[in-house]
């Protein structure tokens, strides 16, 4: 994350989170009047923190957390719910809403509004899934190896969630094997001591004759 007293310090490449926010604001809408930006990556890779920083740089852009859409029974089988509660209303230019899932109570809560703002962020594992990509203005991938991400996530959630994490890891492996996001990422986001480094992703660098591999990371990182 960004140091508290230097929240927008440039990385070695000169990019700041304000630069990224300006880029995203300048994109054409991708879903009704909305520029929908996906932030994907492995569990524990820092998606929520980064999305929060980016939302602030965008002047308080709404953020949809996919943890609110998923549930214990549907870790990844939530596409229909997302489409009905969020994608379809935003496509019509209407405010959306979702009924956030409480992971401790194992129940869905009261509806929470999601306005059709100029830029809306959707963050979580699976934000770049096949069914969602046509509605995204850009897909960002948090560039952190899966084992390192999962270790960070386990440490964050503690022993209480150990059993859940064992099941989650297998479910995430299966999800990305069937529906990989990283090969379609427009931008890769790496956390650095100074902030975040934003690099062109596979989708931006792939030529017209190059196919999409099923790997979710370069061999050097795994």
Uncertain runs: 1-14, 208-222
Radius of gyration: 17 Å
Distance between the termini: 23 Å
Order of helices and strands: HEHEHEEEEEEHHEEH
Number of domains: 1
Sheet with the most strands, sense and barrel status: 6 strands, mixed
The CATH architecture term is 3-Layer(aba) Sandwich
**Widest beta sheet: strand line-up:** 2-7-1-8-9-10
Work out the helix count: 6
Which overall shape is indicated by the principal axes computed on the Cα atoms?
globular
Task: Output the CATH topology.
Answer: Rossmann fold
- Would you tell me the overall average pLDDT? 87
The helix-and-strand class reads alpha/beta
User: How many E-type strands?
Assistant: 10
Percent helix: 25-40%
CATH class: Alpha Beta
Our estimate of the beta-strand percent is 15-25%
Name of the CATH superfamily:
P-loop containing nucleotide triphosphate hydrolases
Question: How would you characterize the overall build of this protein?
Answer:
The strands form three sheets. The chain has a six-stranded mixed sheet. It has a two-stranded antiparallel sheet with strand order 3-6. It has 222 residues and is α/β, with parallel strands linked by helices. It is 30% helix and 18% strand. The chain has one domain (17-201): P-loop containing nucleotide triphosphate hydrolases (Rossmann fold, 3-Layer(aba) Sandwich), CATH 3.40.50. It has helices at residues 17-25, 47-57, 79-91, 146-157, 162-178, 202-205; strands at 35-40, 63-65, 96-98, 101-102, 107-108, 112-114, 119-123, 138-142, 187-192, 195-200. A hairpin with a 2-residue loop joins β9 and β10.
